[in-house]
Structures are given as C-alpha cells and as structure tokens.
Backbone:
C-alpha cells in the first residue's frame, strides 16, 4: 500500500518514519465500506493516523471504533458510567499527567493485547501534552541479522504488576479522581508473547517489547533479561523511528498497537487536558 492507492482520503505524512494526518472524511457519519477500508489500510501503513476538525458524540466515537472490532472494557481502568468502553482521560489544571506517560504498548499484559486505540480530543492545553509514537517495524528492520536471529526464538513475559502498583497508580484505586482504577486479578498475572511478532494482515515483522510491561524473557532470569530488554526498549524508541502528534480540539487519533509504541508527555502541569479513549480488542500475537 502506498499513498497513491488511496482514492477517498488525502494523506499528509508526518515523518519519514511513520504517522499521517488524514483529511476527506467525516467520522461522525456512518462511513462507507470503501472509506473504512482505506482508513484501515492507512492505519496499517502509517501506524498512527490523525483526523483534524472532527465532532464526535460518544455514540459516534463508539460506532467508528466498532468498525475495527469489539470494544474493550478495561479490567482495571474505569470507563464512563454510561459508556464503560470509553475512558475519560482527564487531567485537571495544576496536576501532573500520570496516565500513559512513558513508552508502552497498550495492554501487552493481556493474553490478546489490544488492536489499537481511538482517541478524541475535547480540551487541549495551549502547549504541551503531545503524544509520541515509535514504529516497531522499523525498529525490527534496523536490528542486526545476528540479533534478529536470536530474538526470533525468544518469548517475553509481560505483566501489569509494576505499572499498576506504582505510587501514582495506587492513588487511583477506588479513588474519586478524574481517572480511577478498580482492583483486578489481572495485575498479578503474567502472559507470554513472542519478541518478534508478525502483523496479522500485512505479515510484516515488528519488535514487541516495552519498558512498561515486559518483565523478562521466558527461561531467563529477570537479571539476565534486563540488559537486553533495556537495549531493545532504547532501540525501539529511537528518534528516527518516531512521529509526534500535536493535539487540537476535535482531533481524532488512532494507532495500531501491534506496530507502534506510544508515550503521552507530562509537560503541561498548569493546563487542563481531556481526551476520550476507546480501545479495540485484539487477538493472540503470532511470531513468524
Ligand atoms: C494512552 O492512551 O496511553 C495515553 C495517550 C495520551 O494521553 O496521549
């Protein structure tokens, strides 16, 4: 797929590595199958896609997300009462951002990690609060042949334990703050995923480790695993694999969670930010 194949969408690439802004579509409408197919292809091609000047009700946000698959109700992070599939990511002015800060792949501690998330921006700080993305297919391609061979056979263990028991996470349990968590057995569980995964549709290979949820390699101790995980996570988020979304009110962003890592920035303490997030369920990750 190259951008010249798109008939209904206008594509503006963000960097040489990844990311695109898309125009020519109104996501509040029940978009045609042709337009949906092009959006899905753009997602698989660019990893993270954005749509400016949208105006979505909660129902329209959910309807668009459902085109990609069933919607996740997060086992830990509380959704909205009326729309449990929507997480209200609200950071009031004067507080630190603490959700999604730091590089990660969403929910890699699930047996079937999320396919991707779709965010809709309601209140955006005048400066700060950008989201960074890094292309994990490029990260794979830029490994040496020797390291690729070693990683092909490796399986990694992922767990939510550290991330969801950190001091900033503990404050959110049963809290009445803008983002609240509920207790879940999933925090104590761990799952296995191949270190190199193959995209279920394009077949392209990607590196699949992240510093938030990957604890060690199967059959290796945590101490043995740590140096290689640290190396891979630093490599995976190299600046030349990245793009950056500068949010605007009314912007919709979506990423393919099998292709990219992302990180929300915590650099706008004095300002409010409100973004609604819906995540689409994914499937078992396969190696090559
Ligand atoms: C996330 O979904 O991980 C947070 C993204 C953001 O707030 O920019």
Residues:
């Amino acid at each position: 797929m190259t951008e010249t194949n798109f008939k209904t969408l206008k594509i503006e690439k963000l960097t040489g590595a990844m990311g695109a802004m898309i125009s020519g579509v109104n996501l509040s409408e029940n978009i045609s199958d042709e337009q949906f197919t092009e959006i899905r292809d753009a997602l698989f091609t660019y990893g993270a896609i954005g749509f400016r000047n949208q105006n979505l009700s909660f129902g329209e946000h959910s309807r668009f997300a459902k085109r990609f698959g069933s919607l996740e109700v997060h086992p830990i992070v509380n959704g909205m009462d009326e729309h449990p599939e929507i997480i209200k990511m609200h950071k009031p002015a004067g507080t630190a951002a603490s959700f999604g800060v730091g590089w990660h792949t969403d929910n890699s501690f699930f047996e079937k990690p999320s396919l991707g998330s779709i965010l809709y921006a309601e209140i955006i700080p005048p400066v700060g609060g950008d989201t960074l993305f890094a292309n994990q297919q490029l990260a794979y391609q830029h490994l040496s042949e020797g390291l690729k061979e070693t990683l092909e056979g490796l399986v990694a263990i992922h767990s939510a334990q550290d991330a969801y028991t950190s001091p900033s996470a503990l404050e959110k349990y049963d809290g009445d703050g803008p983002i609240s968590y509920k207790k879940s057995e999933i925090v104590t569980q761990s799952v296995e995923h191949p270190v190199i995964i193959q995209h279920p549709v394009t077949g392209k290979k990607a590196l699949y480790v992240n510093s938030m949820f990957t604890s060690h390699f199967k059959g290796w101790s945590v101490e043995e695993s740590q140096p290689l995980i640290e190396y891979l996570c630093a490599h995976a988020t190299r600046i030349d694999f990245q793009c950056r979304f500068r949010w605007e009110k009314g912007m919709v962003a979506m990423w393919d969670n099998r292709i990219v890592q992302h990180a929300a920035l915590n650099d706008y303490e004095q300002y409010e930010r409100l973004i609604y997030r819906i995540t689409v369920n994914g499937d078992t990750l396969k190696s090559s």
